[in-house]
Amino acid sequence: MKTEARRKRVPVHGVLLLDKPEGLSSNDALVRAKRLLNAEKAGHTGTLDPFATGLLPLCFGEATKFSQDLLEADKTYETTVHLGVRTDTGDTEGEVIATAEVDVTSAQIEAVLAQFRGPIAQVPPMHSALKRDGRPLYEYARAGITLEREARQVVIHSLALLSYEAPLLRLSVTCSKGTYIRVLGEDIGAALGCGAHLKTLRRTAVGRLTLEGAMTLDQLGALDEPQRAAALAPVDALLSSFPLLNLDDDLARRFLHGQRLALGQSGIGALPPAGRVKVYRQSDARLLGVAQLMEYGVLAPERLVLAG
Questions:
Q1: Mean pLDDT over residues 270-290, rounded?
Q2: Which single residue of 28, 68, 138, 146 has CA 20 to 30 Å from 4?
Q3: Does the global pTM surpass 0.85?
């Protein structure tokens, strides 16, 4: 029997706000979504551990050009920290390596949380994808090898106690890129004197993107093809924090050719402050790309959107 010919991939442009399920890697989630959308090109904007759930923005087509901006963005999580139990991975996927009695009060917890707000130093965990000599650290960890790791500076913008019913501690965290919530949970447990690991982890926001309007893979799979394409947010959903700059047709054409534009002499009117801007063609509100608006009104293209 002949196997059915594989469908030809098609250009798909936009952002899928995926609510990732537990037990699925970020890459597996991307592969499944890409297959459901029959998309030519796709990428994710930073990984979630398999045991974690929540917001995983997936970029398709022209949106992949801006995925780096979300890698740099702050993230918000809700997590349950299990006090009194340490595991070798810092989460539920590892083996228990120590237990201790939990005898702490909410007041003690609040005092400890205050120590972790603002800039802090974190030592990356061995069970992570950071590479040493071309190999991810988790490969060394699985082989029973522990390597020295340098502490990294991260910023905890907010850290709030949502509830506490011993031994479970629920927290909300907003943090800078590169923050390991597993390590934060372990460090809080160490500061409380009882140790801890993460029982649950759910990402609720990446930059200005939130779980509002996000969908699961099952929900996406239940739609027909036109509905799946319509479920994508537009490319500029990744650029909501950028000031907007409109160009007329002539300036837009030159911008798409990668030319620097002297807008201060173009009669375009008031300009946003110097910095990164998102650029549109005014006649049809089409996103053209992002650029650096420099002093004296010079616009330097950075990344162009070629699909209209």
A1: 92
A2: 28
A3: yes
